Amino acid sequence: MSDASRAASPRTPRPEKVLLAKPRGFCAGVERAIDVVEIALQLFAGPIYVRKEIVHNKHVVEELKAKGAIFVEELDEVPDGARVIFSAHGVSPEVREKAEARQLKVIDATCPLVTKVHHEAVRYATEGRTIILVGHEGHDEVIGTMGEAPKHIRLVGSAEEAQQLSLPDPDKVAVITQTTLSVDDTKEVIDVLRQRFPAMRVPAGEDICYATQNRQTAVKQMAEQADLLLVIGSGNSSNSNRLKEVSESLGTTAYLIDDVNEIDPAWLTEKVKCVGITAGASAPEYLVQDVLKFFQDMGVTNVEEIDAVTEEVSFALPQELTADHSVTPATTKPSRVG
Asked: Which residues contact 330 (CB under 8 A, 6 or more apart)?
């Protein structure tokens, strides 16, 4: 029995209904990244190093550690010539150059949607444009993207920052975004930028990933019914934090939890008749089932799945795993600009 189950005493008010978001949990990019590590562990003699958390979820990382993966913060911790996996969040060209110089055998698990943003940055920089990157300072994905064209990119994190932005040539501007942002907040920032820089170039397709958008759509639907929303995801998961914020923006109290043991029964007051459950794109489904069981053990029998969007997206594995099972240190990314 989990700590949370023991803490939910018979005196804890029981919700009448539980809503499950659909889609929830793993996206195609996360599934691909985890598969990369697991397949590499099977194909190649160890050690297998992974730079940064492969995805931002502590349970996933711990499970892969238990299978033999060695997680490091920087390449300095990886022996020369060893095999290393780049995380789903992407890396800068500088990191790739260091890996090549040390003859590391690289397997790139960068999400293809993040790679798309990197290519946009390079293209806009080559055109001589100032690039506005809408994102959160310090996030692994933002660090990697900014590294593609450091002299050209300006980071903006809010509509207020967008309003204050000063650029050398307002007619030569482009915008790109972190893939895991709030859809509504990003639209607000870009609307401000459009007003200030009417000639601004915008990518033909959305930078915010399909999974981020879909999970936020499901939360919006649940928030109409739920009195409380539980978002399963780690604290450093950007898209999980955005799900919490979306719920709160609609007036529904939300908590971000790593797993069932972080549920505080004090949240379940008499006013909480309906609880919504969702999971960020890097959270495994078994964590959702653990939380659902917590409520079923309390006696909740009314469980409804909110089917907001159907997802049918998948990504091919990196060529390093599908060719002849050999990995070369050669980079497949464009060279850094500026």
From this structure: 100
Look at strands 274-279 and 48-51 and give their pairing.
Answer: unpaired
Looking at the structure of the chain, the number of domains it has is: 3
| CA dist 287 → 18, 186, 217, 256, 278 (Å) | 15, 29, 21, 13, 10
261 has a pLDDT exceeding 80: yes
Residue the block writes with tokens 């933002």: 142
Q: What is the CATH number of the domain that holds 150?
A: 3.40.1010.20
Please tell me whether residue 64 adopts helix, strand or coil conformation.
helix
Taking the model in full, what pTM does it have? 0.91
Q: Tell me which residue range forms the domain holding 232.
A: 3-26+210-307
* CB 62, CB 50: distance < 8 Å: no
Say if residues 117 and 91 touch (Cβ distance below 8 Å).
Answer: no
First CA to last CA across the chain, in angstroms? 56
Q: Which residues are catalytic?
A: 141
151 within domain boundaries: yes
Q: What 8-state DSSP symbol labels residue 135?
A: S
**With bands split at pLDDT 50, 70 and 90, how would you rate the model's confidence at 325?**
low
Q: Which helix (H) or strand (E) holds 303?
A: strand 303-307
Tokens matching residue 325: 């099972």
Residue 70: count of CB within 10 angstroms of its CB:
15
- What pLDDT, in 10s, does the model give residues 138-164? 999 999 999 999 999 999 999 999 999
The separation between CA 255 and the C-alpha centre of its own chain, rounded to angstroms, equals 18
A 10 A CB-CB count for 137 gives 11
